[in-house]
Write a structure and sequence with these properties.
By secondary structure, this protein is an alpha/beta fold. The protein has one domain: 3-Layer(aba) Sandwich (Rossmann fold). The chain is 52% helix and 14% strand. It has eight helices and five strands, in the order H-E-H-E-H-E-H-H-H-E-H-H-E. It has helices at 2-12, 30-46, 64-77, 86-89, 95-102, 111-129, 141-154, 157-161; strands at residues 21-25, 49-56, 81-85, 134-136, 171-173. A five-stranded parallel beta sheet has the order 3-2-1-4-5. InterPro entries: Rossmann-like_a/b/a_fold, TilS/TtcA_N. GO terms for molecular function: transferase activity; tRNA binding. This is Cytoplasmic tRNA 2-thiolation protein 1.
């Protein structure tokens, strides 16, 4: 029933055209795992190719177990996996290094602000590496609502005014 609803939504919205190469943002969490599982089941019906793309932010003790879970999923599902590390993409900078650099600097932005921007860039780079035409993530409507609320509470008008459209290089799909 759930998979049929997803299939209907994808087809009705023309979200993933036949032949699409889809980079699935894989964090090792439940949302991205369910997304990858469902898309894997639907891939033959949709005529799409899937690649898992994971991001290693370089936060000590934070991502190791999740990346191990993603590696296991990729192996058991027979899906290709690309891991993009901040250290490789950003000239040796990791989130640990960013946190050290910004600590006590008087900057008002939290590490989460930097990490979100860098993670998005790393995911886009992973999608580029695998030749993806589309990026999908396990973000859901609650995640989006939380982001809007946090930006509102911070008074971050620039982020509130920003649209969802990117530069068009790779189509990114939000919650369905």
């Amino acid at each position: 029933a759930f998979e049929a609803e997803v299939l209907h939504t994808v087809r009705a919205g023309r979200l993933l055209p036949p032949g699409a190469v889809v980079a699935v943002g894989a964090s090792g969490g439940k949302d991205s795992t369910v997304l990858a599982h469902v898309l894997r089941a639907l891939a033959p019906s949709l005529d799409i190719t899937l690649h898992l793309v994971a991001v290693d932010e370089g936060i000590s003790g934070y991502r190791d177990a999740a990346l191990a879970a993603v590696r296991d999923q990729a192996a058991s599902w027979g899906l290709p996996l690309t891991i993009v590390a901040y250290a490789d993409l950003f000239g040796g900078w990791t989130m640990d290094a960013v946190a050290r650099s910004t600590a006590g600097s008087g900057r008002s932005r939290s590490c989460c602000t930097f990490c979100g921007v860098l993670r998005r860039r790393a995911l886009e780079e992973g999608a580029r590496r695998v030749g993806a035409t589309h990026i999908v993530t396990g973000h859901n409507a609650d995640d989006m609502a939380e982001t809007v609320l946090m930006n509102f509470l911070r008074g971050d008008a620039g982020r509130l005014a920003r649209g969802e459209d990117g530069d068009g290089a790779v189509a990114a799909l939000g919650p369905v």
